């Protein structure tokens, strides 16, 4: 993968004949106790020193990813719009900075249905963020969750089920990674021999969870399953030399995973 452009809110890479753009929706600060030891015990004073803190809190980047095949744009996740913290909702600025016209976004696919991934399909003023959208893909197991979100009622009937193994296009395939949420999904992007795996919330704190993949997150729906998915996906990416892109990896959130003697390490591109 080759970086071809960058700015404060975007970084675009070339992978074969397509481009993938990391779009920065912003960040959110979370308490240390969100990190959980096996057994659901929260971290506290035992937080390792390599984890940076901002006023005593964990700072999580929030990233979405645009896949451009030269004709249409597929968007993986959409950020939070104005549904959560005021430090988020920068997706429109990121798209503009990356020179991606909103009218070219024809497909939106969600990794899962937590609010910092789905609310960006609606602008703060209530208008549709992507007026030319023709396909909205939601993990099948989470369709009811999506359709329970009142703010997104205009999209409830437009949502289509997304299944593991489903091909979204010639270059994009859905990969199951349940645990953080019941239908949590990754997307394998391939072109001309290059592969990028776009995931949602497989990792929340990259300074810790590559070295200690057993560490879970308070909001994991099933912490044991989330750990198993994390280890499985890490091994796939490391053993096949795939690049990876994560919603909460430090912006732009794109890099490679390598095995260590005891776990894994992440190297940003």
UniProtKB/TrEMBL annotation:
Positions of transmembrane segments: none
Highest taxon in the source lineage: Bacteria
CDD domains: OPHC2-like_MBL-fold
Start and end residues of each Metallo-beta-lactamase domain: 61-248
Alphabetically ordered keywords of this record: Hydrolase, Metal-binding, Zinc
Family: Belongs to the metallo-beta-lactamase superfamily.
The name this protein goes by in its record: MBL fold metallo-hydrolase
Annotated organism of origin: Mesorhizobium abyssinicae
């Amino acid at each position: 993968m080759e970086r071809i452009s960058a700015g404060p809110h975007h970084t675009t890479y070339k992978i074969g004949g397509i481009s993938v753009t990391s779009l920065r929706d912003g960040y959110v600060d979370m308490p240390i106790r969100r990190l959980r030891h096996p057994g659901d015990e929260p971290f506290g004073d035992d937080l390792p020193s390599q984890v940076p803190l901002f006023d005593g809190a964990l700072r999580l980047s929030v990233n979405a990813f645009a896949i451009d095949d030269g004709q249409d744009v597929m968007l993986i996740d959409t950020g939070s719009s104005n549904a959560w913290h005021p430090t988020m909702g920068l997706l429109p600025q990121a798209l503009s900075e990356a020179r991606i016209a909103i009218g070219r976004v024809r497909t939106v696919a969600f990794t899962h249905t937590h609010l910092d991934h789905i609310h960006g399909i609606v602008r703060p003023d209530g208008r549709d963020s992507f007026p030319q959208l023709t396909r909205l893909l939601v993990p099948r197991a989470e369709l009811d969750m999506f359709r329970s979100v009142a703010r997104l009622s205009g999209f409830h009937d437009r949502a289509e089920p997304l299944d593991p193994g489903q091909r979204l296009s010639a270059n994009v395939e859905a990969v199951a990674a349940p645990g953080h949420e019941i239908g949590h999904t990754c997307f394998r992007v391939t072109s001309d021999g290059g592969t990028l795996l776009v995931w949602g919330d497989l990792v929340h704190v990259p300074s810790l969870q590559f070295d200690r993949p057993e560490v879970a997150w308070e909001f994991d729906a099933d912490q044991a399953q989330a750990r198993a998915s994390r280890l499985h996906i890490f091994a796939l990416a490391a053993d096949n030399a795939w690049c990876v892109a994560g919603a909460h990896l430090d912006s732009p959130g794109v890099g490679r995973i390598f095995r260590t003697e005891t776990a894994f390490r992440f190297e940003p591109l």
